[in-house]
Amino acid sequence: MSNASCIWREEEIADYLLGRMAEGKRRDLQLHLLSCTRCAELHREWSAILEPSEAMPMPTPSPTLKRRLLRRIAFERWLSWRKKDIGAAFAVKRAAVLFLFLMSLFFFQRDSGLPDERMLAASLPNMNIVMDPHTVLHVASVVPSHAKSYVWVNNTSNEMLILTKGLAPLPETDYQVWFITEDRRSRVGLLRWENGIAQLYFQGGELGLVENIAVSVEPKGGSFTPTSPDAIFVNLRTR
After folding, report:
1. For residue 213, with 0-12 CB atoms within 10 Å meaning exposed, 13-18 middle and 19 or more buried, which class applies?
2. pTM for the whole structure
3. Residue range 127-235 in CATH 3.40.50
């Protein structure tokens, strides 16, 4: 049966599966899972993600799970502000870390092993944009490689984050990012590599007016106008 007064948090169940829980608390949760259908269901859901089997490889975290964690973060933030409570502030941090971990599974799901928080923080900078419910994620292929580019765009905060995994830096050229509006291109910046991931964070202007985002290979330092075909192209008008 489900316990209406259940005090266990979803992030604690994830910690349990990841082996990050003290032994005494671990035993308490094991006993609790036998009687609480809510926590047992959360345990099954997170087990499928954190303990994939050969028969069922690591799945992409569901949109429902992402939305649930985002709502949890928003609620804990409100509670922390309302109560000025250190414990509530810690709960915000734990829920946010769990969400970042979830995003790392989405981004690194084809890699072996799971990244820890330090690797995640280094690989996914400016994570506020990723956690914002107003942010839209676009996924584009990189030509001619098999790499994928992930582009988060938030028209409310006018932020953009590009992460491209599997793309190697070029010794004589740079990957330059462009905003496209009514066939006019404006320079945004150059992709930089951190921990093997090409990335660029941008904030400013009116991103809601931008129709497409493109990345092209340009001479070292960038160009005023594109000199090569687009290696990455993202249509912001479609999802």
Report:
1. buried
2. 0.58
3. no
